[in-house]
């Protein structure tokens, strides 16, 4: 059975026809402008204020439209699509509650620099400001969590606004842009002429770095005895994974990748040290603390990475490469600031750098640390360990799948025990830590790559925050493999309560959760369950062999914690090693 | 680090909501606004805001960088880093029985301020100058009884051709 994802009809001929100058409604202008921006897929939910837009969408087959069951599902799906494909994700929601339901997803994309264009309807212009039915000031509400926003007052502005929105969303430091369209604007007609120019005087992201700073960095690398690279989401977003690999191959500097940087550097490479920070590896954290040169490439020194700022990388000269100048010096003072696009920076930097012998002892020390303190957990033969489940997924897929995660313990285990070797293969909510993100994001990723294997790893908590999207998997036969790591508890909260709040387990018991297999079946999705290793291997194989969506519930032991762990307020070398000590 | 008062001039697109974007940025990033003035600039379609804020050098650097991230912001200039002219206007409604008027007029003339309205037992004084001058004027008028006070906040410009 093949996917029932709506087919795109767009041909050059049709596009030419659509692009003719013609007097058409704002809604048609919107659709044609989206086509002009290369949009292939839109996630949305209709309502009163966007009815003209949905009317124009009736029978429109030039791009796919996926009707989710909740606007939160739509915006996370658009986000997953954007992270997987590198293209702009598009979401449509109606005014008022439709628009406010996208707020969590907009904030998620904003924190992780994901390019989205969010189109919301609004009440007719004459009613704006009167507290009309289903009116919300969505541009006002989302101002702090969008890169930019528009309230379109006149249908003639629409082509320009849409063109600008796509440009802003997907250039510089990427991010979500909101376009709020009052109902009358989507109904009014005007002459549509494609081919607009951009007039954005205040917006000129610096792509090409300062050459002098690159020279300084090259010299610093030659002089350094203990260099370390932190690679972040910027490497993935700018498509710089090959340049990074070349940079590391030439210089042989040990690398750690942040949560959003996973996949930006191959995990099999012997210079890879794992993830840094709160649940990072012993090696990565020790290396940062002992480094004399710390090269941050496209990461933003998030507090989950740095721990206590005062004692972070105390011996290191800090190099910070970022497209967003405001990130440089925001948390950690940079000795060599480099503003620019990561890919461009590395392209220009690579001819200037080479391996330094001064760091030979350091390289041996790092591989020693990796050998002595690897990721590990105590396995069990009687019950399923969540880490073992992740290893099972990794082994059977060879690290080739696109993995989305939700937020919590399973997210950290996925980051630790799944081996990401390709960019855009790890899709996870980093900055905002949004529960409910993982499953709809997988649907978006699958829309971007209908032929690839997409696995969505969830906890039993987060799965219940967007479970309604099982319906669109079933109806459209979207073949996401949905994993629920069920420990019957809010695991990460339980872990904090155990370690920091004196085992006062306040309101974390998820008793009353549905039977996930039956829940899947109720939506028409195949459901499977495993409680031990044999069952796990068997049902996972069955899931892989089954075309179409499958939900697999792994019932795991309740009390497992994520280690290592750096307690909040500690420096990152003050790690609790837990069971693996 | 030293907390100082800074005047920042921000040239912005004259778009609805731009004041909210700028002031909202200050609020949510924990930057303090002492005063903010907005008006037309020398160019059609652009407005100039002058914001007086307190902070150390690091805060000021973040303010400038964060402002530049707003799409509607064209140019940010830290006026306090150079010799500048900073002016504020205040209207002060002061109680004045006819017998007290000459005395008040004396204060007004010394400060090169102006009386712009006279009522039966009050008058409105208009004063333009730097913040210190306005503060001094208010202090001197205080004993007569200030009924209402309205200040515009500082607008400013760098001296010379810069």
From TrEMBL, chain A:
Pfam families: TPP_enzyme_C, TPP_enzyme_M, TPP_enzyme_N. Coiled coil: none annotated. Its EC number is 2.2.1.6. The keyword Magnesium applies. Its cofactor is thiamine diphosphate; Mg(2+). Residues 214-348 form the Thiamine pyrophosphate enzyme central domain. InterPro entries: Acetolactate_synth_lsu, AHAS_TPP, DHS-like_NAD/FAD-binding_dom, THDP-binding, Thiamin_PyroP_enz_cen_dom, Thiamin_PyroP_enz_TPP-bd_dom, TPP-bd_CS, TPP_enz. Residues 406-554 form the Thiamine pyrophosphate enzyme TPP-binding domain. PROSITE patterns: TPP_ENZYMES. Gene3D superfamilies: 3.40.50.970, TPP-binding domain (3.40.50.1220). Binds 1 thiamine pyrophosphate per subunit. Binds 1 Mg(2+) ion per subunit. Keywords: Amino-acid biosynthesis, Branched-chain amino acid biosynthesis, Magnesium, Metal-binding, Thiamine pyrophosphate, Transferase. The keyword tRNA-binding does not apply. It catalyses: 2 pyruvate + H(+) = (2S)-2-acetolactate + CO2. Pathway: Amino-acid biosynthesis; L-valine biosynthesis; L-valine from pyruvate: step 1/4; Amino-acid biosynthesis; L-isoleucine biosynthesis; L-isoleucine from 2-oxobutanoate: step 1/4. It comes from the Bacteria. Residues 25-139 form the Thiamine pyrophosphate enzyme N-terminal TPP-binding domain. Belongs to the TPP enzyme family. This is Acetolactate synthase. It comes from Paenibacillus segetis. The lineage of its organism: Bacteria, Bacillati, Bacillota, Bacilli, Bacillales.
Automatic annotation (TrEMBL), chain B:
Pathway: Amino-acid biosynthesis; L-isoleucine biosynthesis; L-isoleucine from 2-oxobutanoate: step 1/4; Amino-acid biosynthesis; L-valine biosynthesis; L-valine from pyruvate: step 1/4. Signal peptide: none annotated. It catalyses: 2 pyruvate + H(+) = (2S)-2-acetolactate + CO2. Its EC number is 2.2.1.6. The keyword Amino-acid biosynthesis applies. Transmembrane segments: none annotated. Keywords: Amino-acid biosynthesis, Branched-chain amino acid biosynthesis, Transferase. Residues 7-81 form the ACT domain. InterPro entries: Acetalactate_synth_ssu (IPR004789), Acetolactate_synth/TF_NikR_C (IPR027271), Acetolactate_synth_ssu_C (IPR019455), ACT-like_dom_sf (IPR045865), ACT_dom (IPR002912), AHAS_ACT (IPR039557), AHAS_small-like_ACT (IPR054480). It comes from the Bacteria. The keyword Plastid does not apply. Belongs to the acetolactate synthase small subunit family. Catalyzes the conversion of 2 pyruvate molecules into acetolactate in the first common step of the biosynthetic pathway of the branched-amino acids such as leucine, isoleucine, and valine. Dimer of large and small chains. This is Acetolactate synthase small subunit. It comes from Paenibacillus segetis.
């Amino acid at each position: 059975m093949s996917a029932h994802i709506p087919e795109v009809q767009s041909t050059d001929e049709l596009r030419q026809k659509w692009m003719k100058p013609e007097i058409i409604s704002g809604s048609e202008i919107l659709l044609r402008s989206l086509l002009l921006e290369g949009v292939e897929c839109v996630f949305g939910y209709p309502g009163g204020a966007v009815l003209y837009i949905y009317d124009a969408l009736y029978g429109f087959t030039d791009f796919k439209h996926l009707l989710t069951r909740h606007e939160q599902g739509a915006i996370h799906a658009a986000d997953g699509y954007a992270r997987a494909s590198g293209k702009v994700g598009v979401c449509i929601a109606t005014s008022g509650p439709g628009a406010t339901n996208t707020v969590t997803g907009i904030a998620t994309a904003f924190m992780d620099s994901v390019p989205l264009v969010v189109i919301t309807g609004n009440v007719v212009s004459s009613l704006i400001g009167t507290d009309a039915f289903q009116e919300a000031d969505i541009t006002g509400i989302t101002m702090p969590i969008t890169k930019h926003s528009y309230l379109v007052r006149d249908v003639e502005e629409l082509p320009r606004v849409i063109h600008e929105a796509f440009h802003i969303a997907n250039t510089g430091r990427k991010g979500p842009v909101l376009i709020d369209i009052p109902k009358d604007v989507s109904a009014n007609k005007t002459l549509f002429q494609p081919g607009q120019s951009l007039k954005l005087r205040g917006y000129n992201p610096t792509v090409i770095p300062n050459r002098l700073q690159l020279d300084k960095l090259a010299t610093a690398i030659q002089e350094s005895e203990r260099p370390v690279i932190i690679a972040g989401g910027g490497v993935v977003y700018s498509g710089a994974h090959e340049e990074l690999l070349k940079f590391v191959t030439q210089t042989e500097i040990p690398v750690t990748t942040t949560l959003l940087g996973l996949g930006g550097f191959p995990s099999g490479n012997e210079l890879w040290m794992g993830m840094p920070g709160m649940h990072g590896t012993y090696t990565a954290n020790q290396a940062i603390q002992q480094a004399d040169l710390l090269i941050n490439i496209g990461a933003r020194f998030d507090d989950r990475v740095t721990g206590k700022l005062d004692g972070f990388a105390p011996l290191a000269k800090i190099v910070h490469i970022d497209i967003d100048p405001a990130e440089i010096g925001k948390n950690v003072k940079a000795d060599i600031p480099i503003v620019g696009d990561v890919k461009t920076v590395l392209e220009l930097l690579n001819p200037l750098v080479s391996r330094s012998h001064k760091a030979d002892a350091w390289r041996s020390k790092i591989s020693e640390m990796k050998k002595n303190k690897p990721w590990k957990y105590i396995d069990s033969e009687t019950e399923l360990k969540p880490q073992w489940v992740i290893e099972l997924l990794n082994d059977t897929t060879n690290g080739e799948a696109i993995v989305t995660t939700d937020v919590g313990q399973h997210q950290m285990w996925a980051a630790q025990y799944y081996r990401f070797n390709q960019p855009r293969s790890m899709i996870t909510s980093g900055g905002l830590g949004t529960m409910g993100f993982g499953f709809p994001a997988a649907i978006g990723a699958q829309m971007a790559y209908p032929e690839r294997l997409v696995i969505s790893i969830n906890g039993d908590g987060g799965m219940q925050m967007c479970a309604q999207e099982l319906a669109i998997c079933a109806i459209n036969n979207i073949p996401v493999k949905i994993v629920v790591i069920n420990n019957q508890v809010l695991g990460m909260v339980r872990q904090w309560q155990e370690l920091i709040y004196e085992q006062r387990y306040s309101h974390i018991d998820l008793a009353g959760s549905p039977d996930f297999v039956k829940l899947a079946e109720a939506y028409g999705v195949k459901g499977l369950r495993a409680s031990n290793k044999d069952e796990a291997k068997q049902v996972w194989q069955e899931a892989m062999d089954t075309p179409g969506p499958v939900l697999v519930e792994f019932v795991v032991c309740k009390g497992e914690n994520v280690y290592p762990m750096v307690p909040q307020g500690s420096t990152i070398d003050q790690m609790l090693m837990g069971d693996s000590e | 680090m030293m907390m100082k008062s800074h005047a920042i001039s921000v040239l912005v697109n004259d778009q609805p909501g731009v004041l909210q974007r700028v002031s909202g940025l200050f609020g949510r990033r924990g930057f303090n606004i002492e005063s903010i003035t907005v008006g037309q600039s020398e160019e059609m379609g652009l407005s100039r805001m002058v914001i007086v804020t307190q902070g150390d050098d690091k805060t000021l650097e973040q303010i400038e960088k964060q402002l530049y991230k707003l799409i509607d912001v064209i140019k940010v200039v830290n006026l306090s880093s150079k010799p500048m002219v900073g002016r504020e206007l205040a209207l002060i409604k002061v109680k004045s029985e006819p017998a007290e008027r000459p005395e008040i007029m004396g204060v007004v003339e010394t400060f090169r301020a102006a009386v712009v309205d006279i009522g039966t037992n009050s008058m409105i004084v208009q004063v333009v100058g730097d913040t210190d001058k306005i503060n001094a004027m208010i202090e001197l008028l205080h004993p007569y009884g200030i009924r209402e006070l309205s200040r515009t906040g500082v607008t400013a410009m760098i001296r010379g051709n810069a």
